Amino acid sequence: MSGETESLRFIGAGGEKSHRHVVIIGGGFGGLACARELGNSDVHVTVIDRRNHNLFQPLLYQVATAALSPADISEPIRRSLGRYRNIRVLMAEVGGIDRDTKRVALTDGGEVAYDDLVIATGSQYNYFGHDDWQSHAPGLKSIHEARQIRQRLLLAFEKAELSRSSLQKQALLTSIVIGGGPTGVEMAGAISELGRYMISRDYRALAPSQMRVILLEAGPRILASFPEHLSSYACEYLQKIGVEVRLSQGVSAVEEGRVTVGDEHIEAGCIVWGAGVKASPAFTWLGIKEPPGGRIPVDSHLQVVGLSKIYAIGDTAMAVDTDGKPLPALAQVAKQQGQYLGRLLGDPTRASKPFRFRNRGNTAVIGRHAAVFDFGRWTLKGRFAWLLWAVVHVYLLINFEKRVLVSTQWIWRYLTRQRGARIIDENAASIGDQKEVAQTNALIRR
Predict the structure, then answer these.
(1) Which residues are catalytic?
(2) Which domain holds residue 44?
(3) Are 186 and 111 in the same domain?
């Protein structure tokens, strides 16, 4: 038998119960949790992801602000699942799903057969019909975007050091964060603290007073999903560390190096998008009508409504809690759903209770010594919330090695305030990425 035939036989749908084949699309929190529950079982598992790594997105903003390196919060999927001999990993992009033949079509022309299919493709930033804004205001969903933001932020400081015009310096030292959710709040606080420390310590032609960080929120308050008193605390703390919080101000245009709010044009060296997310367009693969927000409706066992043997978890699924409210797009939801579904698929003959989400608390860090926690019945803010935030995020990292690395760097950063990842790609800064250079040069010419 040829190697190709053997390969197809392994990834094809098995007819016997002991050789069922579960295909998981997506290697994020939900997909990995599901795969691990199925690890070393008598079920064949194939995990498909267009990236070769998983990523701890809650700490991606620290990569963007030079506190951590990408390797600190990511790991190759093959390494995460390598110890499970019944799991195969494919770095590929899905192009469609044939429900009749139970096959997943790949964009390179290949296909993978399945007995049970799990869709865990996550979410992406929502630019509300202005997708052209993405190149000017990247979000925080990938290592590439985090590096892009870091590059623009650090390069703007270097350009400001060279500039002889106070107006040009002001423009280059202005950072705009669009969206007052947890990501926006965390980014605004981190940029302000990073920039003011760097300027006072390392730059001779700049002054901290020249730096400006603007947080734009279209709604009446930031952290709208948190209780109002936590929202007010976060707003006051951000203002205390120099962030200009603008509420009820929507963005009408985002251009290269400039944001328009109403009739006001604000020039900036770095623009970050954090104004909301939407589910990945995985529903198009299933041939169903676009659901609200693009999130695929699932039943209490996470099976796609109206479809057999197809499941959806995480940000791409519309699951409801016991009170009938949609579950939020949070990492803890995806992880719990993945664990539940992995146990269910491992033994489908076992009677399983409906999925129930156990809320571990919602959190956002605002700055050094400041965070907020919402546990539902009670809340927490300030220094202790910040310590708890750090403990929880270290615990949720992918393995022991990452926990030690991040903990060590956080302790060192806390004691010295130094950021170890302040590296600018010399090619992008000189002759390589002309688009990055053009953005900051455009500000200097104005």
Answers:
(1) 186
(2) 3-50+92-125+278-346
(3) no
